[in-house]
Design goal:
Number of strands: 17
CATH topology of the largest domain: TIM Barrel
Bound molecules: alpha-D-galactopyranose
Shape: elongated
Helix content: 25-40%
Strand order of the largest sheet: 7-6-5-4-3-2-1-8
CATH class of the largest domain: Alpha Beta
CATH superfamily of the largest domain: Aldolase class I
Length: about 425
């Protein structure tokens, strides 16, 4: 068990010192949007699967739905194309080109369409000879390709790392970033470089990552299951001492896409992923069929208070501070900050997938909170259930967490004592 007080102190220290990030002025909060891969993979057979194949129709429809279903208003503003958009060969003059059957109007037209909806446009490539699915990579064409992206008015580039020399990535990824910058077009730069180095057990230079990329994939691909999601969360917890400090405005660790609205996560598990991703200051990139997301799952994706935690302007990545009796507690320092005391987002995650709701008690003090004046507590997934006010750090917070579910709280630091009923109680039950 990690002591609850030590970790927040460490994080605060890092936040004060700051880590210098890629200076393109972008992604000052974690990017939000929609990315095709997890749900649509490399479906290229448009005759059999007209609504699911990687084609301009798919992305135009995603753009339409982001707006009409309220996702854009909630902050999800990037439409990002993943692998399998390319033709198998470059054009006669050496440029990248889209598959002409599936993207008959070309990428610039698609980018224009996405922009016409008030959204931003992202595109996938690979720093290698081929993309992971075997389409042409950028290696040997870096400058041309960066220029092409700028001509197509791309706003976000996801650069994968298949078919390349992992040891040369430390040089290659920053170089490609320079080519992007040289175009003069601001483009969010998403790097997959550490995921490939992590796989090989290499020592990774995260300071360089934060300097050259806006976000980076640290680890394995996510799949549509609780096991996959929790495996990634566990790995982030395992590595938090090394990774968390490199996150900040303009540069983020990326645990991969949100699964919410697909087949693998239950309602409670979806709330859990959203809460952990908010704590981790993770990019919120949905990968689902936007027309089929059931209302209760859409409500999770569009939960304003949870998004507010994710998008907190301090940009401090949270950590797992306790792992106890099947309950994981994750905390993240957030605004407001008063007299040097942070507010916190706190997620109690029940790792058990069966059994009854599990009760857990902890004092604010043991959570690492320090303000003696008091805090107000808000349940982010049950906002009607009131706001609790505490005057002492000794009050017990009692939660009951549903199997594989979460209780997600915002604990705001207060500047004066509160005088509500809850202050008289020895505990608060949430
Ligand atoms: C890798 C990446 C995925 C996806 C696929 C595409 O596995 O990690 O996110 O982009 O390639 O082939």
């Amino acid at each position: 068990m990690i002591h609850g007080i030590l970790l927040p102190c460490l994080i605060v220290l890092v936040a004060v010192q700051g880590i210098r990030g890629l200076n393109n002025g972008l992604a000052l909060t974690p990017p939000m949007g929609w990315l095709a891969w997890q749900r649509y993979r490399c479906i290229t057979d448009c005759e059999t699967y007209p609504d699911e194949c990687v084609s301009e129709q798919l992305f135009m429809k995603a753009a339409d739905l982001l707006v009409s279903e309220g996702y854009a208003a909630a902050g999800y503003n990037y439409v990002i194309v993943d692998d399998c958009w390319l033709a198998k060969t470059r054009s006669a003059d050496g440029k990248l080109q889209a598959d002409e059957k599936r993207f008959p109007n070309g990428i610039k037209a698609l980018s224009d369409y996405v922009h016409s909806k008030g959204l931003k446009f992202g595109l996938y490539e690979d720093w290698g000879n081929k993309t992971c699915a075997g389409y042409p990579g950028v290696l040997g064409h870096e400058e041309t390709d960066a220029k092409t992206f700028a001509e197509w008015e791309v706003d976000y580039v996801k650069l994968d790392g298949c078919y390349s020399n992992v040891r040369l990535m430390d040089k290659g990824y920053p170089e490609f970033g320079k080519h992007l910058n040289n175009t003069g077009r601001p483009m969010v730069y998403s790097c997959s470089w550490p995921a490939y180095q992590e796989e090989k057990g290499m020592l990774i230079n995260y300071a360089s990552m934060a300097k050259h990329c806006n976000l980076w994939r640290n680890y394995d691909d996510i799949d549509d299951s609780w096991d996959s999601m929790i495996k990634i969360a566990d790995y982030f917890a395992l590595k938090q001492e090394f990774w968390a400090k490199f996150a900040g405005p303009g540069h983020w660790n990326d645990p991969d896409m949100l699964l919410i609205g697909n087949f693998g996560l239950s309602y409670e598990q979806s709330k859990t992923q959203m809460a952990i991703w908010a704590i981790l200051a993770a990019p919120l990139l949905m990968s689902n069929k936007l027309s089929d997301v059931r209302p209760e799952f859409k409500a999770i994706l569009q939960n304003k208070e949870v998004i507010k935690v994710n998008q907190d302007r301090l940009g401090i990545q949270g950590t797992r501070v306790f792992k106890d009796k099947g309950i994981d507690i994750w905390t993240r320092p957030i605004e407001p900050v008063r007299n040097g005391h942070f507010s916190y987002a706190v997620a109690f995650v029940n790792r058990r997938v069966d059994g009854a709701p599990y009760a857990y008690n902890i004092t604010l003090q043991d959570l690492g909170l320090t303000n003696n004046e008091g805090y107000t507590i808000q349940n982010l997934y049950d906002q009607e259930n009131g706001l609790f006010c505490f005057n002492t750090l000794k009050t017990l917070v009692k939660v009951r967490v549903i199997p594989s579910g979460v209780v997600f709280l915002r604990i705001n630091v207060e500047s004066s004592k509160c005088d509500q009923d809850t202050t008289k109680k020895k505990y608060v039950f949430i």
